[in-house]
Amino acid sequence: MRWGCIADDVTGATDLATAFVSRGLVAAVHFGVPSRGDIEQLEGLDVLVVALKSRTAPPADAVGQSLAALEALLAAGAERFYVKYCSTFDSTPSGNIGPVIDAVLGRLGEPGSVVVPSFPDTGRTVYQGRLFVGSDPLDESPMREHPLTPMRDSSLARLLEPQTQSEVSLVPLQTVHKGSEALREELLGLIATGRERPTLVIVDAIDRDDLATIMEAAEGLKVITGGSGLALGIPAGDEAEARRIPRTPGRRAVLCGSASARTREQIASGKALLPFRKLDLEALRNDVAAEAGRIIDWARDLWSHEPSAVPLVFSAESVDDLAQDRDTASALVEQALAAIAVGMVREGVRELIVAGGESSGRVVQELGVKALRIGPAISPGVAWANAIAADGTSLSLALKSGNFGERDMFTTAWSALEGAAQPGEGSEEK
Fold first, then answer.
1. DSSP structural state of residue 117
2. Longest distance between any two alpha carbons in the chain, whole Å
3. What does the pLDDT look like over 264-301, one tens digit per residue?
4. Rounded distance between C-alpha atoms, residue 363 and residue 337, angstroms
5. Number of continuous H segments (helices) and E segments (strands) in the chain
6. Which of 271, 275, 297, 395 is paired with 68 by a 20 to 30 Å CA distance?
7. pLDDT-based confidence at residue 251 (cuts at 50, 70, 90)
8. In 257-400, where do the E strands start and end?
């Protein structure tokens, strides 16, 4: 296994695995820390990404989960390690990005690593150590009002320094543009053995060429850290073969727990063409199971009249929906969408899009899915994957980070499965 990866949420893990597959490497995502038996069932992998639910966990919990994942990846024979966080550097002031990186470096005895959240394909770039979302500094982007991790500064150094025990340095874009040899020399000078503390080096990157330069320069580092975009700097292999996955045709559905600006745009686009229902938050507070049942009954009736219909279920379509009691509402939405997903699979859904990292994690948990084999790409950072539910049902899942995907994704993503997927084995309709 060439790479063992630790990701801080479900959609981030699939983003990263998708990036590796786009470079011709066979990749899978495992939900939670895998056992030796789990790893033995995932044959022929170049990359294994362990998907944790640690982004907003207390730092001690995040570190504990990450170190357990690292031990499993070491046992699996991984040669190099990738600590993956969001391309918008989502974090609270006390963690968890810094503490997790420190813990991984400490366990492996490594003197430091790079810090590269840039993902230019999705508009995330770093210049002079400042993180941009499109043309906006991070703290002027919609991430400023994120319900769980509001980002009020664009300086990566100022965000990282309170979280880490390591030194924090910066390599500017001018050095990156001198090429991989010059950058390698700079990194070797900053990340040196024998120092009192490890060094984390923030590296500017504004396009894919910069990512390729960074990956080439960092080839001697056992640990790298970044968003999923950094993996796009790996030299390309046979992408088409790496993306071939089983597929079981069946009903389709879209479930949205994310309240991000991009997902709200996708909901607005989807509502113009798809039958839809919005979760009733007050009803969820009274009885989650009853509200989930109402949605499942609606979908069942819809399919009885139009078998090819694609129901769209969402929790938020405007900023006003986010105004009150966000934490409680988010937990209820996750619970409801997971119950709806289970019910819809029982009704014959075999192709399912889930928007939002926390919601995606809860859905795969309730379906009993342990791992995803990454397949055809939908858009930068988003791909279809094959999964096996606890009852043996083969599913095609697309788990989307809230801010990723084209505006029309909920109506166009299905075509990406055609040609890149193979008929599933032993997965007849249930």
1. -
2. 70
3. 999 999 999 999 999 998 999 999 999 999 999 999 99
4. 7
5. 15, 20
6. 395
7. very high
8. 276-278, 312-314, 349-355, 371-379, 382-388, 394-400
Q: Please, what's the b/e burial string for 76-104 (b: 16 or more CB within 10 A of its CB; e: otherwise)?
A: bebebbbbbbbbbbbbbeebbbbbbbbbb
Overall fold of domain 3-239: Rossmann fold (3.40.50)
Give residue 104's pLDDT. Answer: 98
pLDDT tens-digit series, residues 301-331:
999 999 999 999 999 887 677 556 666 788 8
Asked if 157 and 170 count as a contact pair (C-beta separation under 8 A), the reply is yes
The closest alpha carbon to 52, from 84, 78, 82, belongs to 84
Q: Mean pLDDT throughout 108-134?
A: 96
Q: Provide the CATH number for the domain formed by 243-423 in this structure.
A: 3.40.980.20
Cα distances from 3 to residues 17, 88, 197, in angstroms, run 10, 23, 25
**Phi then psi dihedrals of residue 417, to 5 deg:** -70, -25
User: Sheet of 136-137: strands edge to edge?
Assistant: 124-127, 130-133, 136-137
> Does pTM top 0.85 for this prediction?
no
Fold equal for 3-239 and 243-423? no
In the chain, where are the structural domains located? Answer: 3-239, 243-423
